[in-house]
Amino acid sequence: MSSTDLRNITVSKPIAMILLLSFLLLLSALLNTIKQITQNGLFTGTNFFCARTASLSNQEALGVNSWFPVPRWLAGTWEANEETVLDAYDYKQGIQTISEPMRIDTLRRSVVGTQCDSLGRIWYCACTPIERTLETESFVDHQTIERISLVANSTTQITVDSLAKVTRSGKSIGQEQKVFKEETIATYRPVSDGIVRANFLINDFDLQGHPLVSSRATCYERQIEPFKVVDQDERGDLRSKFQEFLIENGLGNLLAKN
């Protein structure tokens, strides 16, 4: 059959209607499947997979002595009083709950770097578990940080991945307490002297590993104290822990001389 013959073929109206109806039914089924996949956290665009969060939910807060070096521009005590939530997706409802940037008041203070090696490099104590409290205008989070790991480190940025068990208490009367796991991937970049920008990817999931909420946020943190050596805090004798870490990892040559 020639191409001219193909152009001369016509389709009757009943057949055309049947074909159109079949296409619409197929499209509806496809959209429903995508919706179900998205609600269950399996859609690849969400960066949130049930199999992975199920594995994370089973992790226990075991005692870990871990350290990693940090750039000098990030060493010190930092504070943030507000942050901007860029977007958020609720997996239970299957909807995007925040699509426009929204500023919220928050109170967060952190100490980055506690020990120095013989080369003068500053090291961050990633020993876990550790307790932390984070307060916003609508809730208070009591967190047990179970894991802190370095993802990437360069002269211009550093990325850290942490996992915590969170107990959230709402400030409104009658709000029930919530318990869940939260993974936070934080990337820090210097902006100016004493100012860094922090970008967060936050994934919340229940204790069985089912995804709850995924969100992105950003804030500027201000240095309120310069770096200083800290030998003792709520985690114990940091100086001894750091020395043990260096020796156990074949880095005894980095032990600072007394």
Layout of helices and strands:
Layout: H1 3-7, H2 13-39, H3 50-57, E1 67-70, E2 76-90, E3 95-98, E4 102-112, E5 115-116, E6 122-125, E7 130-136, E8 139-153, E9 158-170, E10 178-192, E11 195-205, E12 211-225, E13 232-233, E14 236-237, H4 238-248
Antiparallel strand pairs: 1-6, 2-3, 2-4, 2-12, 4-7, 5-6, 7-8, 8-9, 9-10, 10-11, 11-12, 13-14
Features:
258 residues, alpha+beta, Porin, 2 domains, 8-stranded antiparallel barrel, 3-stranded antiparallel sheet, 4 helices, globular
Quick structural overview:
With 258 residues, the protein is an alpha+beta fold.
User: How many DSSP-defined strands?
Assistant: 14
In total, how many domains does the architecture comprise?
2
CATH architecture descriptor name of the largest domain: Beta Barrel
Helix and strand content put the structural class at alpha+beta
Poorly predicted ranges: 1-11, 33-49
Distance between the termini: 92 Å
Radius of gyration of CA atoms, rounded to a whole number: 25 Å
Q: What is the share of helical residues?
A: 10-25%
Describe this structure in words.
- This protein is an alpha+beta fold.
- It has two domains: 3-39; 67-254, Porin (Beta Barrel), CATH 2.40.160.
- The protein is 20% helix and 47% strand.
- It is built from four helices and 14 strands.
- It has helices at 3-7, 13-39, 50-57, 238-248, and strands at residues 67-70, 76-90, 95-98, 102-112, 115-116, 122-125, 130-136, 139-153, 158-170, 178-192, 195-205, 211-225, 232-233, 236-237.
- An eight-stranded antiparallel beta barrel has the order 2-4-7-8-9-10-11-12. A three-stranded antiparallel sheet has the order 1-6-5, with helices on one face. It has a two-stranded antiparallel ribbon with strand order 13-14.
- Strand 10 (178-192) and strand 11 (195-205) form a beta hairpin.
- The longest helix is centred in the first third of the chain and has 27 residues, at 13-39.
- It is globular.
- 16% of the residues are buried.
- Mean pLDDT is 84; it is low at 1-11 and 33-49.
